[in-house]
Write a structure and sequence with these properties.
This protein has three domains: 10-20 and 53-191, Rossmann fold, CATH 3.40.50.12780; 270-434, 3-Layer(aba) Sandwich (Rossmann fold), CATH 3.40.50.12780; 438-533, GMP Synthetase, Chain A, domain 3 (2-Layer Sandwich). The protein is built from 16 helices and 30 strands. It has a five-stranded parallel beta sheet with strand order 5-4-6-7-8, with helices on both faces. The termini are far apart.
Length: 537
C-alpha cells in the first residue's frame, strides 16, 4: 500500500446484515430449533425466534430504543432475553442486562450509568429494582415493563406473580404488538454497540463494557473455527445472561451456526445432567464450581454423558481432581480463558492435545494475538511470567462513560487483562493468577494459583483460596482458606506439600469456611475472602 492508497475502515461502513441475525438465520434454517426453555418446556424454531424478534423490535422502537439507546433488563435466563437481544439488534438499540444479584445501591449506580430508554424487570426482582430506582445515586426515569414468572411472552400461560404496578408501566407480554411481520433493520456498522455487559465489580462499582457488533461477531468466528461448532450442536446454558458467558461463550456463536441453546431460570446440577441425556447435548461450558457440583451429584454415575463432544471450563482454574472426574467418564474436558473486555473465547486446545498440558488454556484462537509483558511494558521471552495482553477484532470497544479506565485497559490497542501468564515452547498459555493476587515472601514471588493447585490435591480439600497476610520476618506469607475437612492442620498440610511445592510457598496458617463466597456466575469471590482473612495478624 502506498501513501496515496485509500484506507477502508470496514468496521465503520453500514451493512444490511449487521443486526439482522435472527432474520438471516431463519432464512437458512427456519425449522431448526434454536432455543429451548427447560423451565416451561417451550421450544422455538429460528423462524419463530425471528417473528418474536420482529414483535420485540416494534415494542422497542415505540419506546425509543434505537440509534444506540439502551434497553436494560433484570431477569433470570428466559426466552425474552433472546427476543430483546435480537429485537434491539434490528432497531439499532443496545441490550444492557443487569445482574439481579446486585444490591439496590449497586444496581442504582449501574442503571444511572446505562441510562436506559426502557427497563424490563422479571417479577421476583421488582422490589429490588424499585429500591434501586429510588436510591439517591440513580436518576433514571424510564418506563418499566413487567416480565411475569408464569408464562412466556406470546403464549397463553397465566402468570401467578405479576410485577407491582408501582414499578411497571405495563405488562411486557401485553405491550408486545401482534404484528410479527418483517421489520426494516437499522443501518448498522460493525463499530456500533450491540451489548453492554458489566464487569464483576469486585474492586468497586461494576463497569459497563461496550461490545460492538464487530466484537460479538469476531468472537463467534473464533469460537466456531477454534472449537469446531456445528449446526447439530446442543448445549444447556449454565451461565447467567447478565454475564458474557451467557451470550458470548456459546449462545451467540451457536445461533450463528444454527445450533440449539437450552435455558432455565435456575442452575440445578441434576437438571443439567438430565438435559444432557434427554437432549443428547454435544457441548457443555461451565465454571469449575458447576462442573464440581455436577460430578459430586448423586445422579453423576448414572448420567449418560456419551453425546458430549467436549466440555470447557472457564472463569477460573479448574482443579485436576474435577478434571479427572470428567476424564474418567470419557469426556474431553479442557480449560478456556477470557474476560468481558476481550472475547471471552481466546484459546483452544489443538486436536489430540496431551493431558500433560491440561493446566494450560491452550493456544490462541485463529483471530487472537497474545503477548506477555513485564512491568516496563516490554514483551517477555517464552517461559517468563508477566501480564497477559490480548488483541484482535473480538475485543470490546471501551468502558461506557469511563475514559480513564478505558485508556488503562484498551489504550494502546492491547487489552490489559490483569492476569499473569507464561507461554511454553509449544505456544501453550498458562495462566498463573491475577497480577494483584501475587505476593512477595522473603523476596520470592508467590503465585496463589500454583499453591492452590497443590493444596487442592489433598483428599480432604474440596476448595481452597490462598491469600497473603503480613509477616514480620518474611514481609508476607500465605494463608490457606479451605473448604473441606476441618481436621486438617498446618503441620499435616505442610507435610503433604513437601516435595510438591517449594517451602517458601507453603502457607503459614489455615482457616476454614463452610462454603466459599461467590460472585458472578458461581465464581469464587476472592475479594470477599481477602477482606475476611487477608488482613489478620
Amino acid at each position: 500500500m502506498t501513501d496515496q492508497d485509500p484506507v477502508h475502515d470496514h468496521s465503520a461502513r453500514p451493512y444490511g446484515w449487521v443486526g439482522a441475525y435472527s432474520e438471516r438465520r431463519a432464512a437458512l434454517s427456519p425449522d431448526a430449533v434454536g432455543l429451548r426453555d427447560a423451565s416451561s418446556g417451550a421450544s422455538f424454531t429460528y423462524a419463530e425466534l425471528d417473528r418474536r424478534a420482529n414483535r420485540t423490535a416494534r415494542l422497542l422502537s415505540a419506546h425509543g430504543v434505537a440509534d444506540g439507546e439502551r434497553v436494560a433488563v433484570v431477569s433470570r435466563n428466559r426466552p425474552e432475553l433472546v427476543d430483546l437481544f435480537f429485537g434491539a439488534c434490528k432497531t439499532g438499540g443496545v441490550l444492557a442486562p443487569l445482574s439481579h444479584r446486585l444490591a439496590p445501591p449497586e444496581m442504582g449506580a449501574l442503571l444511572d450509568d446505562v441510562d436506559p430508554e426502557l427497563l424490563v424487570v422479571e417479577a421476583p426482582f421488582a422490589d429490588d429494582v424499585a429500591a434501586a430506582l429510588a436510591h439517591g445515586n440513580c436518576g433514571v426515569d424510564a418506563p418499566a415493563l413487567a416480565l411475569g414468572t408464569g408464562g412466556i411472552a406470546g403464549r397463553a400461560e397465566p402468570d401467578p406473580d405479576p410485577v407491582d404496578s408501582d414499578l411497571a408501566a405495563g405488562d411486557y407480554a401485553g405491550a408486545l404488538p401482534e404484528d410479527d411481520s418483517p421489520v426494516e433493520t437499522a443501518d448498522l456498522a460493525l463499530s456500533d454497540p450491540a451489548l453492554f455487559l458489566h464487569t464483576g465489580g469486585s474492586t468497586g462499582v461494576p463497569k459497563e463494557t461496550v461490545l460492538t457488533h464487530g466484537s460479538v461477531l469476531w468472537n463467534s468466528f473464533n469460537t466456531i473455527t477454534a472449537w469446531g461448532l456445528r449446526p447439530d450442536d446442543v448445549t444447556p446454558m449454565t451461565f447467567p445472561m447478565f454475564h458474557t458467558g451467557g451470550w458470548n461463550v456459546i449462545t451467540v456463536p451457536l445461533f450463528h451456526v444454527g445450533g440449539e441453546v437450552i435455558v432455565a431460570r435456575e442452575f440445578d446440577p441434576a437438571e443439567v445432567l438430565g438435559l444432557v441425556d434427554e437432549t443428547e447435548a454435544s457441548l457443555l461450558i461451565a465454571v469449575p464450581a458447576v462442573l464440581r457440583m455436577m460430578a459430586d451429584h448423586d445422579d453423576w454415575e448414572e448420567a449418560d454423558l456419551s453425546t458430549l463432544r467436549f466440555v470447557k471450563s472457564g472463569g477460573g482454574p479448574c482443579r485436576e481432581r474435577v478434571m479427572r472426574e470428567w476424564w474418567e467418564r470419557d469426556v474431553d474436558l479442557s480449560q478456556g480463558y477470557g474476560l468481558t473486555e476481550c472475547g471471552p473465547n481466546n484459546f483452544a486446545m489443538p486436536e489430540g492435545w496431551d493431558r500433560a498440558t491440561a493446566d494450560s488454556v491452550g493456544v490462541p484462537a485463529p483471530h487472537v494475538d497474545t503477548r506477555v509483558v513485564g512491568d516496563d511494558g516490554g514483551e517477555l521471552d517464552r517461559g517468563e511470567i508477566g501480564e497477559l495482553e490480548l488483541a484482535g477484532p473480538h475485543a470490546a470497544d471501551r468502558y461506557w462513560r469511563n475514559p480513564e479506565e478505558s485508556e488503562a485497559t484498551f489504550g494502546d490497542g492491547w487489552v490489559s487483562t490483569g492476569d499473569l501468564a507464561r507461554v511454553d515452547e509449544d505456544g501453550y498459555h498458562y495462566v498463573e493468577g491475577r497480577k494483584k493476587n501475587m505476593y512477595v515472601s522473603g523476596g520470592e514471588n508467590v503465585y496463589p494459583a500454583e499453591v492452590e493447585d497443590a493444596i487442592a490435591d489433598h483428599p480432604g480439600v474440596e476448595e481452597v483460596v490462598v491469600v497473603p497476610v503480613p509477616d514480620e520476618q518474611w514481609g508476607q506469607v500465605g494463608r490457606a482458606v479451605v473448604q473441606g475437612d476441618r481436621t486438617i492442620d498446618l503441620e499435616s498440610l505442610r507435610e503433604f506439600l513437601d516435595g510438591r511445592l517449594a517451602r517458601f510457598k507453603h502457607p503459614r496458617s489455615v482457616a476454614f469456611v463452610d462454603e466459599m463466597p461467590t460472585s458472578g456466575p458461581s465464581k469464587i469471590d476472592r475479594e470477599a475472602i481477602k477482606a475476611e482473612f487477608g488482613d489478620e495478624e
